[in-house]
Amino acid sequence: MSNIYWDSFKTFFRIGLFTLGGGYAMIPLIEAEVVEKHHWVSKEEFLDLIAIAQSCPGVFAINISIFIGYKLHKIRGALATALGTALPSFLIILLIAMFFHRFEDNPVVASIFRGIRPAVVALIAVPTFNLAKSAKISWSNCWIPAGSALAIWLLGVSPIYIIILAGLGGWAFGKYIQPTE
Question: What Rg value do the Cα atoms of the chain yield, rounded?
Fold first, then answer.
């Protein structure tokens, strides 16, 4: 018989260990593990958890792992998944900090980091497009994320205002505009 705490810790530790590019690059791996492999949450629940994790302050990867862990087994589940997500990064950064002074001026290492940057952009872009498809963002409503990004980038609008406005807009749409089934 398996232990859900140990299984969830191992799952999120593995995700944290083998993901470069931060929380958004983790989305496909988390989805593959928690939705498709373990069936801990449904696809719809996963999309909702992503939206909530993005809206909360803090690190996205930790937020999503806490929400999934809490759904699995309340506080202890959330602790197991959060620790599993954070521990690999902590250990890797600790090792780098211990030895960085030995290779910080090495041209090979600098070249490796320059090569990794475009790959990290792709690791973030692919889940973004997949999420847009899953969230049913189409040509008719793509103006919402595009307008939000432009408002933040060009006009300096705080992302907090965008999140609040989007939440209110979604509520109003669901309550007053969208036909009920």
Answer: 19
Phi, psi of 56 (to 5 degrees): -90, 150
Q: How many CB atoms lie within 10 A of CB 108?
A: 8
1: pLDDT strictly greater than 50 = no
0.70 exceeded by pTM: no
Task: Report the amino acid identity of residue 134.
Answer: S
Burial class (CB in 10 A: 0-12, 13-18, 19+), 129: exposed
Closest by CA to 20, choosing from 112, 120, 121, is 120
Which residues 6+ apart lie within 8 Å of 118 measured at CB?
none
Instruction: Express the helix, strand and coil content of the chain in percent, nearest 5 each.
Output: 80, 0, 20
Contacts of 148 (CB under 8 A, 6+ apart): 162, 166
Q: Is the dihedral of CA 34, 38, 39, 40 positive or negative?
A: negative
Contact 90, 59 (CB under 8 A): no
Helices (H), the chain: 4-17, 23-31, 43-55, 60-103, 107-134, 143-155, 159-172
53-59 CB contacts, 8 Å cutoff, 24+ apart: 53/23, 55/163, 55/167, 59/23
- What are the pLDDT digits (tens) for 8-50? 999 999 998 877 667 777 888 899 999 999 999 999 899 899 9
